Amino acid sequence: MKKVLVAGANGQIGKHLVRLLQESEQFEAKAMIRDKTQASFFENLGAGVAVADLEDEIDVLAALMDDVDAVVFAAGSGPHTGKDKTIMIDLDGAVKMMEAAKQKGVSRFALISSFDTRRGSWGSEDFRPYAACKFYADEWLRSSGLEYTIIHPGRLTNDEGTGKVNAGGEIPRDEVPREDVAKVIVETLNSPHLVNKEFQVTKGESPVMEALKMV
After folding, report:
1. At what angle do helices 12-23 and 178-189 cross, to 10 degrees?
2. 189: which of 38, 74, 165, 198 lies 20 to 30 Å off by Cα?
3. Catalytic: 130?
């Protein structure tokens, strides 16, 4: 049974992810949360809990990884927070988690990015700081030496997941339920062929496992 540290566990994708990891036969979750009052949701699922902040120092974050086999960075300030918070969470927080993983010898790292972080596709003025942070976090992970997977989801919704998606290196822009993104993450961690790869994902007609085989 492999243990997965989920950064951003109390977010909407994070909660789905922790539940799915706990329901799986291959994984168990360790939920990283900022506030201990958030712990009961995860403890009721049987998941481990670690209280820390992405603005903590690398050594503090590394201490959470003594017993884990993989890290998922599902945290995000969102495109509507101030630029300072976006930088501290989506860029600096992500990079510190990568460096903490390297320090502890945790090689497997999955990152939830934005749908298209390439320059020239950063969108509106309000969205650009968020996209820029995702762009540089993606770049850092690619060159980190970690066994990475970068997942680029379409516009996130709270619709109930269908278990069916469209996935590929470059696919038409569309929406995707957060629950289905969580399902994709679990399958990604169980798919050696997705190491050192990245892909876009939206709602679709193929079961998650089948869709990811085509990436």
Report:
1. 50
2. 38
3. yes
